[in-house]
Write a structure and sequence with these properties.
about 700 residues; six-stranded parallel sheet; FAD/NAD-bd_sf
Length: about 700
């Protein structure tokens, strides 16, 4: 099979999806759907096909997560849950329309945490699937893929004028092709379809993961002369695959098909699962680690060689390598202008961001891969560099465990390790071939969920592994405007307000940014159901949305979250806001609302189960009155960090300040799990910079010892 044929074969494989829900569970879903979607633009398929699409949406969830959602449907479909909510011992399907609405609302706001979790999980699934339909998105005025139309607003598409070398945005007349032909796979990429038999091989280094940490590490070590094999659980996709179809690409490019949450479903976890990891799907902002955070790492965790002065040159180098530069003043979208103009009006600190882009056409689809190869993710920077230097990449490859094969003598080459992996069939997602690699050096960069889970499955957990999960818990405040904002268009994130980053004189506060909002994600995130939800979605293009991100961990001695693998091999993700974190999340609500009103919003609302809505700046304090407990308010995180943090104490950290797993020589960690604390800024640049420092230390430490 030629490289071109392999490339074509793996582009859009027709997945074989089998039903996951029982007949009774599908019946429950069919009964709940009309209540949740009441008043929403209608889809065109029969109800049975809609339920089948919901069932298929669960394909990418781990089996135990699918079982949890099935249990939620069993609970909501039974008589007991209805009796607890409205005092009627009957099934939900038998209730009158008004009683159904009253019952579902009681579930969403129930004092019983399992009922809140179950109802919110089902609500999000139904809304995400419904608003993935083209006829539904058209009804709310969604602009859709930009490459299939002319720019609709002034803040999307190439800009007028002559391009400058230091600008990330394209200027002048640029043709946007409607069809991009697949390119042959680069040398060194081995797709799953090319694996005709089990494979056992050797290398100097195995790197597990291709995100901001893994890809940087792989490139640095390959360029230093080490033989490197890179393993990635996600698929290898390129610009030809990124066709700006929000719903389909979200399923393909995110962990658990974008349905990953904490165990209680209270925090949605947004992580990439593709070559390039989250750098392929993030919003491009590049922010340096605050000096006070680096100082905290040194004083509290024993991290050395990463002072603000020492890291300055590293940040500069990384920024050059990913072409980070400031967004010009005339390139901001309307949603970013809300933040920029509102903060300036209030006299708050606000800045124009640097983004890692070249010739960006402001299409607005950064969250589902860059069709134009403008985003300088690791997919188009460090992964190609690693391949050019001789590295090999296996995509669609799940690492099952790491086995330490030799006793550590403490001298010379680190003990040999065997990485056991399974290559997945891209057509079904099921195991196909076994891949085994022997290497003295293994670098785990699977993210703050995947890394501790792999270590625990390998019997290499304990101590601080899996503890100290930090999420930068994030919630949104929407504002309704009298003019178009169209948050699905333009560069998603070009501004940042850090006025409250050191809230009330502490090192722990919050900052405010802008997200892109496309229909499927927006519908699942927006609060409410039925007619109240419909009313919000009908204003899709007039809604501005700002997000408040909290630097969690103010109670420094407490681990507010953890990742652990149970005896059945299932990964559990637990997280709860501490009291101090709750105070900051609440404060972010009123501050964000002030920005909306300063920018001209006529009303502002929260993501509480029953939104708190105010229509005057004088009333924003009311937004802090609502609960921020589990499933009381919509929370998400795209910054999943901690769980294997650097430190000198093995009982409270997962790795040494060198990034090496305590007690296992030659086993390193290089991803967001390594960060000793939450950052207070988006982590992409920090992870790349830390990976650079640690990779170069590895290369020096093992030079001349492990070469094949």
């Amino acid at each position: 099979m030629t490289a071109a044929a392999v490339s074509s074969e793996i582009r859009t494989p027709p997945r074989v999806v089998l039903p996951h829900l029982s007949r009774a569970q599908r019946e429950s879903l069919a009964a709940l759907a009309p209540c949740v979607l009441r008043g929403a633009p209608p889809g065109t398929e029969p109800a049975s096909e809609f339920v089948a699409r919901c069932d298929a949406r669960l394909e990418l969830l781990p089996a135990h997560r699918r079982a949890q959602l099935g249990l939620a449907l069993d609970v909501l479909g039974g008589r007991t849950s209805v009796l607890l909510a409205i005092g009627k011992a009957t099934r939900f399907a038998s209730l009158a329309e008004n009683d159904q609405a009253r019952c579902f609302d009681r579930w969403l706001n129930s004092a019983l945490a399992p009922l809140r979790s179950a109802s919110h999980s089902v609500r999000r699934l139904l809304l995400a699937v419904h608003y993935a339909r083209p006829e539904v998105t058209e009804a709310i005025g969604y602009a859709g893929p930009m490459h299939l139309r002319s720019p609709r607003v002034s803040w999307e598409g190439p800009m007028v004028g002559i391009s400058r070398a230091d600008e990330p945005v394209a200027r002048g007349e640029i043709s946007l092709p409607t069809i991009i032909a697949p390119a042959p796979l680069p040398r060194g990429v081995i797709p799953a379809v090319a694996m005709r038999a089990d494979l056992h091989r050797t290398a100097d280094v195995v790197v597990i993961g291709t995100g901001a940490g893994g890809a940087v590490t792989a490139a640095r070590l390959a360029e230093a002369g080490f033989s490197v094999v890179v393993l990635e659980s996600g698929a290898y996709r390129t610009r030809a695959d990124f066709d700006e179809r929000e719903a389909e690409l979200t399923e393909q490019l995110y962990a658990d098909g974008a349905l990953r949450t904490t165990d209680d479903a209270s925090v949605a976890l947004v992580q990439g699962n593709t070559v390039g990891g989250s750098t392929t799907v993030n919003w491009m902002i590049m922010l340096r680690t605050p000096d006070f955070v680096l100082d905290q790492w040194a004083s509290e965790s024993g991290v050395y060689g990463m002072t603000p002065r020492e890291m300055s040159a590293v940040f500069e180098r990384v920024e050059r390598e990913v072409h980070a530069s400031a967004v010009p003043e005339d390139a901001h979208s309307a949603n970013n202008r809300i933040l920029l103009d509102g903060a300036r009006s209030l006299g708050w600190k606000v800045s124009t961001a640097q983004i890692n882009a070249t010739n960006c056409v402001r299409c607005g689809f950064c969250g589902v891969g860059c069709r134009h190869d403008a985003k300088q993710s690791t997919l188009v920077t460090f992964v190609p560099r690693a391949l050019t230097a001789g590295a090999t990449l296996h995509a669609d490859t799940h690492v099952d465990r790491i086995e330490v094969r030799e006793r550590d003598t403490g001298a010379g080459t680190p003990p040999l390790k065997r990485v056991h992996a399974t290559v997945r069939d891209p057509y079904s997602g099921r195991p196909a071939r076994a891949l085994t690699i022997d290497a003295p050096i293994v670098v785990v960069a699977g993210g703050a969920i995947g890394t501790p889970a792999l270590l625990q499955r390998s019997g290499l957990g304990g101590g601080g592994v899996g503890q100290w999960l930090r999420l930068h818990p994030t919630t949104a405040v929407w504002g309704r405007y009298d003019h178009e904002i169209v948050t699905s268009t333009g560069i998603p994130l070009t501004t940042m307000c850090d006025e409250h980053l050191r809230w009330r004189g502490t090192d722990f506060g919050f900052w405010i940014e802008t997200p892109p909002m496309h229909p499927s994600f927006t519908a699942a995130a927006m609060p409410g159901f039925g007619r109240s939800h419909r009313e919000l979605m009908s204003s899709f293009n007039q809604l501005g949305v700002l997000i408040g991100l909290t630097r969690d961990g103010a109670e420094r001695s407490r681990s507010s979250g953890r990742v652990r693998v149970n005896r059945r091999g299932e990964t559990s993700i637990e997280y709860a806001l501490t009291r101090e974190d709750q105070r900051r999340v609440r404060a972010s609500l009123s501050a964000t609302a002030q920005l909306h009103f300063a920018a001209g919003a006529r009303e502002v609302g929260t993501m509480h189960s029953t939104p708190i809505v105010v229509r005057a700046a004088a009333d924003v304090a009311r937004l802090e009155e609502g609960s921020v407990g589990p499933n009381r308010i919509g929370l998400f995180s795209a910054h999943v960090n901690g769980t294997c943090r650097m430190g000198t104490d093995p009982s409270t950290s997962g790795a040494t300040p060198e990034g090496e797993r305590h007690g296992v020589r030659g086993l390193y960690i290089s991803d967001g799990s390594l960060l000793p604390t939450a950052l207070g800024v988006n982590p992409q640049e920090t992870i790349m910079a830390v990976a650079t420092v640690l990779a170069e230390r590895m290369a020096m430490r093992h030079a001349g010892v492990t070469r094949n």
